[in-house]
Design brief:
Layout lengths: L1 E3 L6 E3 L11 E4 L6 E4 L28 E2 L5 E2 L11 E6 L3 H13 L2 E5 L3 H10 L4 E5 L11 H7 L3 H5 L2 E6 L7 H6 L4 E4 L6 H27 L2
Parallel strand pairs: 7-8, 7-9, 9-10, 10-11
Antiparallel strand pairs: 1-2, 3-4, 5-6
Protein name: Zinc finger/thioredoxin putative domain-containing protein
């Protein structure tokens, strides 16, 4: 299947056997990061033709598809095929116990979550997709919170992409709910590690408030764009 980005006209080639049949899915253009919605609905067979016997379901989970990168090689899962409206999150936390606790909460909130192993891995993943939720420890991959490369990257995103992303910063030094500092750090919310026992309640309230804040703006934007 050939998919043409409606923003930069870049052509993305995906092997037909890697395309989910009968489902709409989203991919991010590897060149400009524009989110592309692809409709792949199968045609309904004629009534006078009986469909063949369905194949038995394979209970074994398949490995995510490998997609050729720009240089002709195989990229390590540059994007996943997700159904329309699926929520994605990336978790950038080095502490194993804290990471496991956060992952459990985020999965409970129906996010498809990706655990990042390093700042380099995080930035590579962000090249290929826009995440709805980013959870970042300010010491992730660094001893100096002012030299956090992921945080610097997020602060340089254009407003359109950044507006569709909720960024939560975990800190050992900053106060939970400090809105002024959060604004200066270009994040939506700060949670201090001492308040991790309240993490689930705090993040649910913050995300709901953020969605309400932008709902009117997004509806007006969709009308202008005719979406």
């Amino acid at each position: 299947m050939d998919i043409v980005c409606n923003k930069c006209s870049h052509t993305i080639k995906i092997p037909d056997n890697k395309v989910p049949k009968g489902k709409a899915f989203n991919i991010a253009c590897p060149k400009c990061k524009n989110k592309i919605s692809v409709s792949n609905t199968e045609k309904t067979p004629p009534e006078n033709i009986k469909p063949g016997k369905p194949k038995p379901e394979n209970t074994k989970q398949e490995k995510p598809p490998e997609i050729p990168d720009e240089n002709g090689g195989i990229a390590e899962d540059p994007f996943e095929f997700l159904e329309e409206g699926a929520k994605t999150a990336i978790l950038c936390e080095s502490d194993p116990g804290r990471r496991a606790a956060i992952k459990k909460i985020i999965e409970k909130m129906n996010y498809h979550i990706l655990e990042s192993s390093s700042p380099r891995d995080t930035l590579k993943q962000m090249r290929f997709r826009d995440f709805n939720l980013v959870i970042l420890n300010e010491l992730f991959g660094t001893r100096d919170p002012e030299m956090n490369h992921v945080l610097k990257y997020l602060s340089q995103l254009n407003m359109f992409n950044r507006r569709n992303m909720f960024v939560l910063l975990i800190s050992e030094r900053l106060r939970t709910g400090d809105n002024m500092t959060a604004f200066n750090k270009s994040v939506n919310m700060i949670i201090n590690v001492s308040d991790m026992d309240r993490f689930e309640k705090l993040i649910e309230i913050a995300i709901n408030e953020n969605e309400r804040f932008y709902r009117t703006f997004k509806e007006a934007f969709r009308k202008i764009k005719g979406v």
